[in-house]
Amino acid sequence: MSVILKLPLPPEGSKPVYPLDSPSLSDQLSFYKSKTGIQDNEKLKSHLCRIQERIYELFPFPCVWNFDFVRGKVVNNPMYKDVFQSAKTHALPQKIFVDFGSNVGSDLRQVIHDGWKREDALAIDVLPEWIDLGNELFSKFEPPIPYFIGDIFKTEVFDPNKKSEPLGDSLDLFSLKDLNDLKGRVTIISADFMFHLFGEKDQEHLAQCFAALLSNQPGSSIFGLQRGSEHAGIQKLPYAPEAHWYGHSAESWKTLWENIFDPGTVKIVTEMRESQEETQYEYIHGNRKVLWLYWSVTRI
């Protein structure tokens, strides 16, 4: 389903820039010191670089090369505070936060650090190796988080047409066999660096799956971050003519969600920003500007 083809290797002899040396990410540095128990800056850097190399062996994508898994994509999303605050209005016995494309679970652990109940925070991804790598990253200082391994595009993992069984007030997220029991129960869904991996139709299908999982309670939200485009459509990459991805503009992304939810039932916010931070995405995108699409969909 991925439409990004023939991803290039970084320039020979180059090394990724370690981001936690930057003063702008001092909060991230403090988080990793507290959650790994490693207080020495150089020892922490060595630990995180070793984990990054392991992740890159499994998933050789630019976001891993760029250390995006330590940058706090979820908690630093400009939509996060409003989404988190809206969820507090829920009167449900269990408020569930689901992070799709969770990788080693570092972003979800920051949500837990912000006060979300660990047993109600679920990481989801497709590679089982992420679980052990996440536990290794945080070592004995952080207990495990609920983690489900499975591909939501497969009906044995999630069947949008299957009627969910009546359940009690709470769900044990550590023992899920599939995602069907989550239908209509999830308070917040986060999805970062995920949608742009798929073609137009698969992006629509994924959004429909998320909508089916979302609780009907006002304040329930889906939010995320992905590559954006000034104009919606297939985007060519400079390093290979056959390599491409489907990018949404802020307007087309809003329209996608408007076609999924009934009119007047959700508030949709989309915001396009040009990257200002130091990254090494130039070897992917050349000298072109990198646009990031931040967005949220909240029930009203």
TrEMBL record:
Belongs to the class I-like SAM-binding methyltransferase superfamily. Pathway: Secondary metabolite biosynthesis. This is Methyltransferase domain-containing protein. One of its GO terms (molecular function) is transferase activity. Keywords: S-adenosyl-L-methionine, Transferase. It comes from Puccinia coronata f. sp. avenae.
